[in-house]
Amino acid sequence: MTDTPPPARPRRPDKQTYFLILAIAARSRADCLGRRVGAVIAREDRVLSTGYNGTPFGMPNCTEGGCRRCAQRDLDTSLRGGAYDVCICVHAEQNALLTAARFGQQTLGASITSTMQPCFGCLKELLQAGIEEVRFLHPWDPVEAYHDPGLAQQYAALRARFRVFSQVGTPDVDSGDLFAAFSRA
Question: What is the model's pTM?
Answer without folding.
Answer: 0.87
